[in-house]
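Predict the holo structure. Ligand: NAP.
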Amino acid sequence: MAKKALITGLTGQDGSYLAELLVEKGYQVFGLVRRSSSGNLDRISHLSDKVQILSGDLLDQSSLMDVITESSPDEIYNLASQSYVPLSWTQPALTAEYTALGVSRLLESIRRCKPDARFYQASSSEVFGQPDESPQTERTAFRPRNPYGVAKAYAHWMTVNYRQKYGLYSCCGITYTHESPRRGTEFVFRKITLAAAMIKLGMSHDLKLGNLDARRDWCYAKDAVHAMWVMLQQDKPDDFIIASGETHSVRELVECAFRCVGLDWENYVSVDPAFYRPDEAVQLIGSIDKIGKQLNWQPQYSFEQLVELMVDHDLKRLSEK
Ligand code: NAP
């Protein structure tokens, strides 16, 4: 019989790639989707006949219990959250409701309705905040520096606690930034690759950025969701860092994106201090030793390949308009 998986955050970047992966692997896939008056199914429209959508919200415990009872999943992937760090400063309480307490509600629903389901929690490198070591490992202390990171740290420890207290198969993937053509344009990687494509096509003329020397550990969302699935196939639940294991600066990203469209970035890019992030995280780089050794996972796409595939995607999409 086909395995069943429930994905929260199905309509998001990771949810859509994970659904594709699980459908390919022969799973029966259910997605928890909250109601939206304007529709939010763009990223999964190509999967509409392959994924069963169930209505629910991380803010509503009874909806979570109903969805878990109805789908009776073998695996549950919690990818839903308020995922944009700057917004967590203007909506800190709502961020905690979704990203922290939402996970409590979900874990409690699993414990009551389907305690043998395997659970993946989307933890984040933002739990490390201003880390005191680099690269970070699964043992690095959490020092979150924004409401999003604080909420993710709470969710992380609740997931670990439900494993220890109730014996749930629950584990956390501490993902570093991961990108794709389905990433929101408010995130700097997509903002840059999209701008390079638009400037090439004459649809825009310049690009304003913050700190060009900021460095990030970026990988491809498809690589990240593969790691999530591998984590739930192990005999014992455990927590792993999911990252590329290397950092690149925003400057390198800009150079690479504009090289892909045959332009000199210095003619188009200017620095605007208004875009500096006040809580700029330093030296966030994940050690992938543990996941490499124990799960034999490593990213399949390089930084340059990721930039190129995102620029190409936007060039093609915008040219078709
Ligand atoms: P995303 O594109 O922003 O998607 C977030 C998803 O959460 C959307 O499907 C959204 O639904 C859903 N959601 C938000 N609030 C909800 C609620 N109250 N009830 C039910 N669903 C709700 O995020 P992503 O990039 O795919 O990231 C997936 C997960 O990994 C998130 O938890 C994120 O915090 C974490 N993470 C991501 C990264 C990264 O670089 N992408 C790095 C570290 C951690 P709507 O469509 O209705 O808005």
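The chain has ten helices and 13 strands. The first helix runs from residue 13 to 24.
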